[in-house]
């Protein structure tokens, strides 16, 4: 029994080292003794099968988003079904925008999103860059960097990923969105190497769903010691003390 | 102007006074230029327009300092006097300060040509003042995302800068964005557009190509364009470059496809600027006797060991320097600092050429450590202060190869060279 991770559009939506999310999940799962299969989905590939545990989509330029948008339409229902079925989805940056219902670049330029999250994205806002982006979430303090031009408007029933401690996030004091085992966020660093509490939580959900057990080891704790130092560097830019233990 | 020179005396004197004052304080190099420019806004352009061979600007995400240095070497070898900015002093006041240091009170530079590297974000402002005849654009890489947002923005900057150039531009044929810029400029017909490049075979043999940013505009890439200088082979630090159809074997100051492309660019733009005076033999000889720019593949000798300094300014510089390591380095230091606001790009780098790292340093060193740890590689020890880290490397037993390999971010490179006794520091981009 293996955990299957699929990364969508790895060459196109990869502006900010987004492959790091895959690296973190695969490495931590393997350290816990789990088998991992990694694959990629590119424009015009066959629609992937249903046996996917983790789906990743990353950040990119507006031109990259426009290029893949017609193809994303082909796999939109597959994506919605996987999320409804309990698969993990981590969507960062432009990937997050595309998982909302719509992404508006200009009055006459709106892209239809996948609609995993009940929210709409205005991608024509002035650029926001927060080096020490900090978000309070159900899994503790999430730390990274945000760099985007979006305002995300959630429906009343759509839960955010967390509330912003430092930075801008969605634009209303909240950050990102969550539904089932899907997370959408502006956070890179990337998100998962910088925030092992999130990574481990996702891997526990995946393992449970597959009838496996995910338990961290001393090797995980060695990684976390270094992670702590990277988080402290970014948080020092924002005058925040890390509460992750 | 009724009295030539009068427009210069006061700005030059004021700038010099500022220069003297900042030197006393040990301050930066940009302020004096600011003072001179405040007094005469056209100061730089008025000085450089008197140069018989005009001015050339060098642009691109990576390789500006190296290429500026090579072009300068080629042009000097042809007997011309060159005015250039110190490596890294590529913003408006830095350039004005460099002019100030060399100009006479009446606004004359003792030079035949100006060869200047220019920061892309300030390129339009600088070129409006400088009014250059020629430009060369080396590459458009994913660089400083926190500063520029997206590569497409940099493409627009290059387009705007090209609009301020009056005669000639040399472009990297194989760069995704620059190929399109060439198409646009050719259609416009105002500039003489020329290309340099590498053969498909050379491109394919590079583990990660030239790490150019991708252009998702959907525009067709033009293929089969002729290149005045074309890299037909790269083997470690030996490049074979076809110039005007004749192949030349060139021993480069450092290794890799990126150096070979910089040389091809330099040959193209120098040949254009020198016209009938240009000799490819003289140029090749000049390239081979050019030293590396500080910290770009530079080899320092300390006691009985060598230290090779490679840059890790962004994904492209790190990846290309990794790809062209001539062996798995046996003694490695990484020092990473604040020049990268967002270290996410480290995860896009392929570290397979590195077996292990001995010491990690710099204010953001732990990000490199975490990246290596997620690759399952031993990252050694973290010593935050780079001078202590460098000393720790030197205190270790001599590596079997006789060489330490240092991957250094820009500021860490400056501190390291100074610590090792190399005091001829560059001006910095401040």
From TrEMBL, chain A:
<feature type="binding site">
    <location>
        <position position="127"/>
    </location>
    <ligand>
        <name>substrate</name>
    </ligand>
</feature>
<dbReference type="GO" id="GO:0004359">
    <property type="term" value="F:glutaminase activity"/>
</dbReference>
<dbReference type="InterPro" id="IPR029062">
    <property type="entry name" value="Class_I_gatase-like"/>
</dbReference>
<keyword id="KW-0961">Cell wall biogenesis/degradation</keyword>
<dbReference type="InterPro" id="IPR043702">
    <property type="entry name" value="Lipid_II_synth_GatD"/>
</dbReference>
<keyword id="KW-0436">Ligase</keyword>
<dbReference type="InterPro" id="IPR011698">
    <property type="entry name" value="GATase_3"/>
</dbReference>
<dbReference type="GO" id="GO:0008360">
    <property type="term" value="P:regulation of cell shape"/>
</dbReference>
<feature type="active site">
    <location>
        <position position="188"/>
    </location>
</feature>
<dbReference type="GO" id="GO:0016740">
    <property type="term" value="F:transferase activity"/>
</dbReference>
<feature type="domain" description="CobB/CobQ-like glutamine amidotransferase">
    <location>
        <begin position="44"/>
        <end position="193"/>
    </location>
</feature>
<comment type="subunit">
    <text>Forms a heterodimer with MurT.</text>
</comment>
<keyword id="KW-0808">Transferase</keyword>
<comment type="pathway">
    <text>Cell wall biogenesis; peptidoglycan biosynthesis.</text>
</comment>
<dbReference type="GO" id="GO:0071555">
    <property type="term" value="P:cell wall organization"/>
</dbReference>
<dbReference type="GO" id="GO:0009252">
    <property type="term" value="P:peptidoglycan biosynthetic process"/>
</dbReference>
<comment type="similarity">
    <text>Belongs to the CobB/CobQ family. GatD subfamily.</text>
</comment>
<keyword id="KW-0378">Hydrolase</keyword>
<dbReference type="GO" id="GO:0140282">
    <property type="term" value="F:carbon-nitrogen ligase activity on lipid II"/>
</dbReference>
<keyword id="KW-0315">Glutamine amidotransferase</keyword>
<keyword id="KW-0573">Peptidoglycan synthesis</keyword>
<protein>
    <recommendedName>
        <fullName>Lipid II isoglutaminyl synthase (glutamine-hydrolyzing) subunit GatD</fullName>
        <ecNumber>6.3.5.13</ecNumber>
        <ecNumber>3.5.1.2</ecNumber>
    </recommendedName>
</protein>
TrEMBL record, chain B:
<keyword id="KW-0808">Transferase</keyword>
<dbReference type="GO" id="GO:0016881">
    <property type="term" value="F:acid-amino acid ligase activity"/>
</dbReference>
<protein>
    <submittedName>
        <fullName>Proposed amino acid ligase found clustered with an amidotransferase</fullName>
    </submittedName>
</protein>
<dbReference type="Pfam" id="PF08245">
    <property type="entry name" value="Mur_ligase_M"/>
</dbReference>
<feature type="domain" description="Mur ligase central">
    <location>
        <begin position="60"/>
        <end position="202"/>
    </location>
</feature>
<dbReference type="InterPro" id="IPR013221">
    <property type="entry name" value="Mur_ligase_cen"/>
</dbReference>
<dbReference type="InterPro" id="IPR036565">
    <property type="entry name" value="Mur-like_cat_sf"/>
</dbReference>
<dbReference type="GO" id="GO:0005524">
    <property type="term" value="F:ATP binding"/>
</dbReference>
<dbReference type="GO" id="GO:0016740">
    <property type="term" value="F:transferase activity"/>
</dbReference>
<keyword id="KW-0436">Ligase</keyword>
